[in-house]
Amino acid sequence: MPFPVRHASGICLPSKFAGGFTLIELLVALAILAILAGITIPIAQVTIQRSNEKELRLALREIRRGIDDYHRAYIDGRIFKDISGNGYPGNLEILVSGLPDIRDPKQGKIFFLRRIPRDPMNSDLAVTESESWGKRSYASEADDPKEGEDIYDVYSASSKVGLNGVGYSKW
User: Fold this and answer.
1) What's the pLDDT score for residue 124?
2) Does the model's pTM come out above 0.85?
């Protein structure tokens, strides 16, 4: 018979129980960890996708507001009017670099965006922020957006589908 071993709690246990965990106990613990990981990973992926979608909505709203502010300044006569133009910017960089305010005696600039946000769904880091977006010209149809001389709207160039079942390019 093995010698009893005094445990920290004061209980005497035979020495064969003092060694550690059995193989079955370890397998059960690993199975529980695997189940928890199997539950956690999909939840984490959905959380990351939801965060990217929120960032996409905010970026689209910011750029579209800048385009609308540019158009409003054009209509109000605060920036130079081109006879052949329709009041929309030729590129997104104009929104950041700004244009002179014709009504301001000091000819101060009007800025429409602080920076151009990157399309969070476009993973190609080799392109610039403005190149990461799809652009729609005023002359193109909403169902078939095409680039042109101006930028009427922007959309995500991603072909992926959102959590709501709508493709990011349709947002």
Assistant:
1) 84
2) no
